[in-house]
């Protein structure tokens, strides 16, 4: 949704809402976002699939609200046609790697405690309940087959000769995992640093963007925590009380590395990222 029409829609739908400033964000993959007076966030899905799923996302978040101790979006505004919705801005700074490195050991432990409790609560939601709340259940084999096809067609021709066998070996390893792992529980699905906010003033974690929620492998939600280093992810796993098996951490690391291939593929499919970003992730995550 374009900036002007989006603001006019908000005003028309919610005439009692007033603001003096706004920020219009278009860099998100799935949603256009406008922030009003640094107080309210309104999200408009870009694709029909996400528009159709917005009501289910809101229902899931309302189900989670009393069950989690971290802050999550509370959609108090929803357009009549369901094409956009808004919630009070959750405070905090995106927990990118540079921000994480600036934190004290005590702050890191607090974040580990809160993330572990959040993931425990989410992963313990019965699969039957998740289905009732409209959470999708993708086929991991199909998703992997699509990634392998696109990686071979788009990415491998752009890599150095010595890098190609590294990726092929990884795809072989992932193929075996995709055949043996079955979706088992509700997952956030994209728990990366841009969706983890650290409110230093209140020593509080806030989690945003549940648009990629699914019924899947709980290891998915530990994948991007590898960006913060092994010590941190071990702290989270030690405190985590949800469904766990011996191979979960290994799978989480595989999913983390897979993300680099996904970024390179998506950059060549027109998504708002660059091949250089994905290649930098590849070099960092596939380093010996």
Secondary structure layout plus pairing:
Elements: H1 3-13, E1 22-25, E2 31-36, E3 40-45, H2 48-64, E4 77-78, E5 85-88, E6 93-94, H3 97-101, H4 105-123, H5 127-132, H6 140-155, H7 164-180, E7 185-187, E8 196-199, E9 204-207, E10 214-216, H8 230-239, H9 248-267, H10 275-285
Antiparallel strand pairs: 1-2, 2-3, 3-5, 4-5, 6-8, 7-10, 8-9
Overall strand count: 10
Second-tier CATH architecture of the largest domain: Alpha-Beta Complex
Radius of gyration: 19 Å
What number of structural domains do the residues give? 2
- Contiguous uncertain segments of 5+ residues: none
Question: What do these coordinates show?
Answer:
- This protein has 10 helices and 10 strands.
- With 288 residues, it is of the alpha+beta class.
- It folds into 2 domains: 3-88, Phosphorylase Kinase, domain 1 (2-Layer Sandwich); 93-285, Aminoglycoside phosphotransferase (APH), C-terminal lobe (Aminoglycoside 3'-phosphotransferase, Chain: A, domain 2, Alpha-Beta Complex), CATH 3.90.1200.10.
- A hairpin with a 6-residue loop joins strand 4 (77-78) and strand 5 (85-88).
- It is globular, with a radius of gyration of 19 Å.
- The model has no long low-confidence stretch (mean pLDDT 95).
């Amino acid at each position: 949704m374009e900036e002007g029409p989006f603001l006019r829609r908000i005003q028309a739908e919610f005439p009692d809402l007033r603001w003096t400033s706004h920020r219009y964000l278009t860099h998100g993959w799935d949603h256009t976002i406008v922030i009003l007076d640094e107080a309210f966030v309104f999200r408009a899905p870009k694709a029909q699939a996400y528009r159709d799923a917005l009501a289910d996302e809101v229902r899931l978040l309302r189900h989670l609200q009393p069950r989690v101790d971290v802050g999550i979006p509370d959609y108090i505004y929803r357009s009549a046609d369901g094409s956009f919705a808004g919630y009070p801005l959750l405070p905090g700074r995106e927990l990118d790697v540079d921000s994480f490195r600036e934190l004290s050991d005590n702050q890191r432990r607090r974040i580990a405690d809160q993330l572990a409790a959040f993931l425990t609560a989410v992963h313990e939601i019965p699969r039957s309940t998740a289905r009732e709340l409209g959470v999708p259940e993708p086929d991991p084999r199909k998703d992997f087959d699509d990634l392998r096809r696109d990686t071979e067609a788009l990415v491998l021709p752009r890599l150095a000769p010595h890098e190609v066998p590294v990726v092929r070996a990884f795809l072989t390893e992932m193929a075996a995992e995709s055949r043996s792992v079955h979706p088992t529980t509700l997952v956030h699905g994209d728990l990366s640093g841009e969706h983890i906010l650290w409110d230093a003033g209140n020593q509080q974690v806030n989690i945003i963007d549940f648009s990629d929620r699914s019924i899947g492998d709980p290891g998915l939600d530990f994948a991007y925590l590898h960006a913060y280093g092994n010590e941190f992810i071990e702290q989270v796993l030690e405190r985590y009380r949800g469904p766990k098996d011996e191979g979960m951490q290994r799978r989480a690391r595989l999913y983390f590395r897979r993300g680099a291939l996904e970024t390179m593929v998506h950059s060549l499919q027109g998504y708002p990222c660059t091949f250089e970003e994905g290649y930098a992730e590849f070099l960092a995550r596939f380093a010996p």
